[in-house]
Specification:
Elements lengths: L1 E3 L2 E3 L4 H15 L3 H17 L13 E3 L4 E9 L12 E7 L7 E3 L4 E9 L9 H4 L7 H8 L2 E8 L4 E7 L6 E3 L7 E2 L4 E6 L3 E7 L11 E2 L5 E4 L9
Antiparallel strand pairs: 1-2, 3-15, 4-5, 4-14, 5-13, 6-12, 7-8, 7-11, 8-9, 9-13, 10-12
Helix pairs in contact: 1-2
C-alpha cells in the first residue's frame, strides 16, 4: 500500500486520485478558486478510497459484509433460476454502496478464490429501492442484473461451502476491479477489489445459512456479520 497524508489508499483507488490530481493542477493555472474546490474533492476521494482499519469478528462459520453500504434486497434464489447459475439454492443479500461510503471491498470469508470472471454489459442506473418495491416494477432488479456489466468472484470456504461476491455496474460504477488470480488464499477482511465508484454488490450464501439481516440495515465491510454458514459440506460432494 501507498501512503498519502498518513492515509493508506487502496491500490484500486490511486488511478482515480491521479486523474483528480491532474485536473486540479491544470485548473489551478486557469481558475485558482475552482482548483481550491477540486482540492477539497481530492481530500474527499482520499477518504472514500482509503484502506480503513477494521476489526473482523471471530468465527469460522461467519460471512461478513464485503462492502460498506445499505442492504436493499434479500432474496432466496433457487439454483436453477436467476441471473447466474448456482450449484446450490442460495440466499442473496444485495448491498448498495453510496459515494459517501468507503469503496474498498474485502473478502467475506477465509478461503480460496475459485473463479474471477468479468461479464461485459451496460451501465444503466440502478433502480431506487422505493421504485422497484412497486409491484409494477418487480422485475427491475433482475433486468438490471441481467443487462449491466458484472464481475463474479467465487470463494470456497474451508468447510466446502461456496460464497459468491458479484460486483454490479451502475451509472457511476464503470470499473469493476479484482485482479486476484484463481487459487489465491484469502483471509476474511483481505482486500479483493473495488467497484469504482458507488456500485452494487450481491453476496450469495447457501440457502441454509442463518442471517439476521434486514432491508435498510447499514453494513460495514469486514465487520458486520451477514450470515452464518450451515454445517460443513460432507467430503466428496
Amino acid at each position: 500500500m501507498n501512503r498519502l497524508t498518513n492515509v493508506d489508499i487502496a491500490d484500486e483507488g490511486w488511478p482515480v486520485l491521479a486523474v483528480a490530481g491532474a485536473v486540479t493542477i491544470f485548473v489551478s493555472f486557469v481558475a485558482l478558486p475552482v482548483s481550491c474546490f477540486l482540492l477539497g474533492v481530492m481530500m474527499w476521494l482520499a477518504h472514500i478510497l482509503r484502506v480503513p482499519h477494521r476489526l473482523p469478528p471471530q468465527g469460522e462459520d461467519l460471512v461478513v459484509a464485503p462492502v460498506d453500504g445499505r442492504v436493499v434486497q434479500i432474496k432466496l434464489c433457487p439454483a436453477e433460476t436467476g441471473v447466474m447459475p448456482l450449484p446450490y439454492d442460495a440466499l442473496r443479500i444485495t448491498i448498495r454502496t453510496k459515494l459517501s461510503d468507503t469503496q474498498m471491498q474485502t473478502s467475506p470469508i477465509t478461503g480460496h478464490l475459485m473463479d474471477n470472471c468479468l461479464f461485459p454489459g451496460l451501465f444503466a442506473p440502478w433502480p431506487d429501492i422505493d421504485y422497484v418495491s412497486n409491484d409494477r416494477h418487480q422485475n427491475s432488479w433482475e433486468d438490471v442484473r441481467r443487462l449491466n456489466e458484472r464481475r463474479e468472484i467465487t470463494l470456497r470456504h474451508a468447510q466446502g461451502h461456496e460464497v459468491v461476491v458479484v460486483q454490479l455496474a451502475t451509472k457511476t460504477a464503470r470499473q469493476l476491479v479484482c485482479r486476484l488470480a484463481e487459487g489465491k488464499h484469502l483471509a476474511v477482511a483481505d482486500p479483493i477489489g473495488m467497484a469504482r465508484l458507488a456500485g452494487v454488490t450481491d453476496i450469495y450464501v447457501p440457502a441454509a445459512s442463518i442471517s439476521d439481516m434486514a432491508i435498510g440495515q447499514h453494513v460495514v465491510a469486514a465487520e458486520t456479520i451477514l450470515a452464518r454458514l450451515p454445517s460443513p459440506v460432507p467430503a466428496g460432494t
